[in-house]
Amino acid sequence: MSLPLHAQSRPVPEDAVLGGLPPVHEVSAAVVAARISGGPRLVVLDDDPTGTQTVADVPVLTSWSVEDLRWALRQDSSAFFVLTNTRSLSPVDAASRNREVVRALREASAAEGIGYVLASRGDSTLRGHFPLETDVLAEELSGVDGVVLVPAYIEAGRLTVNSHHWMQTAEGLLPVGESEFARDATFGYRRSSLPEWVEEKTGGRVAADEVLRITLDDLRGGGPTHTARLLSSLSGGRTAVIDAVCDDDLRVLALALAEAEENGTRLLYRVGPSFVRARAGQAARTPLTPAELRPLRGDAPHGLIVVGSHVALTTRQLDRLRERGGIAEYELDVALLLDEERRDAHITEIAVAAAGALDSTDAVISTSRTLVTGADADDSLAISRRVSASLVEAVRQVNAARRPAFVVAKGGITSSDTATHGLEIRRAWARGTLLPGIVSLWEPVEGPAAGIPYIVFAGNVGGDDALADALDLLRSA
């Protein structure tokens, strides 16, 4: 089928994109699991914490000491996550952090005698430090033949067809370059065609016509062996972009990658969340039930919800939660958080009030909804980090005063900083999701958050009722 060469300004009917596709080439998760058994471990460097939302029973690290990495390698799991949180960092700091992780991983891998392949997990709406992170990782790994770009996130409706990336909306499929996420103050872009997006993000270093396109015709018509041959043709760090509309497409890719790599092709992945589940040999799982949540839930009567994301969807979700009731709300004023003289007192005032409310109701701490941006991308990122640090400090103070039954963090930077600094989580297990394919629940292994389930809720996923639905499920436990 043919698709427009340029992004459109309005959603198109789904049939216009998805109609007439080749029949699905079915591959079970069990087949992938058997194929990768005994092979290298998939290590996912996650640029915010939300990449775990498609998997279950997978280790998560927020620290990358050699000992932490050795612990993860020793676990009975085909994959694990390292939360780098680089999306919240400057380019220089993001590059440095990727180098730190890979160098520690190299040492840990040698000590444990376990090989690995690397996935740089980025946003399914294409925000993040690309190509910076894959450039740095390729340099550290030395001799990478290809970079495999797979941004699809099936559950959230982020689909790639004919090398164009689409975002599902209530009105149809929207080219992702026309979405609100493409207007991100730090990581904005214009193109929805992935080869053109690669050219745009690399500043022309990689021309669109130099990018290898692996389409649904290849995955479904040719299957794993044909796709493996295409992947094996990569050399010199060439980029390949991959179509995906369902898990079977990604599992065909997983088999092809295993075959290409077994034959000596060295690949690096830049991926959205759905790829991780397929490459790890996991099938999609239903959300956690109240019975499964009950032993994970803290013994306090009520939980804490922390909202930092400013995308329009998050604001609508917060409105729906407010309509259902059963919450006490406390707002951190961003203007005060950027005022050095008044910041600390304001945070303490909010934290004390929220901690006091937990005996009688669930408490919400949010930032004021007016988005404050800086003069340029770096300045905007610095403001985001400042606001997130303030939210984190409020969470730390609440947890010190009154341990909540659970903590929900809404937004990528917010959920990362809350995990690492607010709750001091170093090692955890991603146990599953609260909603189908989204909203991951972590079980901290040790530290101040042990016994408190931590819920990672991306800013850009779910319907308007998703936050309220997730909270209803936690309450039912």
Task: Provide a descriptive summary of the structure in words.
By secondary structure, the protein is of the alpha/beta class. It is built from 16 helices and 18 strands. It has helices spanning 14-18, 29-36, 66-74, 91-112, 132-141, 194-201, 216-232, 247-262, 273-279, 290-293, 312-324, 334-337, 343-357, 377-401, 412-422, 466-476; strands at 41-46, 58-61, 79-83, 116-121, 146-150, 158-161, 164-169, 172-175, 212-214, 238-242, 267-271, 304-307, 327-332, 362-367, 407-410, 427-435, 438-444, 454-457. It has a 15-stranded mixed β-sheet with strand order 9-10-5-11-4-1-3-2-16-17-18-15-12-14-13, with helices on both faces. Strand 9, helix 7 (216-232) and strand 10 (238-242) form a beta-alpha-beta unit. Helix 2 packs parallel to helix 8, helix 11 crosses helix 16 and helix 14 (377-401) crosses helix 15. Mean pLDDT is 93; it is low at 1-8.
Task: Name its key features.
16 helices, 477 residues
Helix content: 25-40%
The profile of the biggest β sheet is: 15 strands, mixed
Number of helices: 16
Name the beta content range. 15-25%
What structural category characterises the helix and strand content?
A: alpha/beta
What is the mean pLDDT? 93
pLDDT < 50 stretches: 1-8
Distance separating the two termini = 48 Å
Shape: globular
Please provide the count of β strands.
18
Query: Which strand order do you get reading across the main beta sheet?
Result: 9-10-5-11-4-1-3-2-16-17-18-15-12-14-13
Radius of gyration from the CA trace? 21 Å
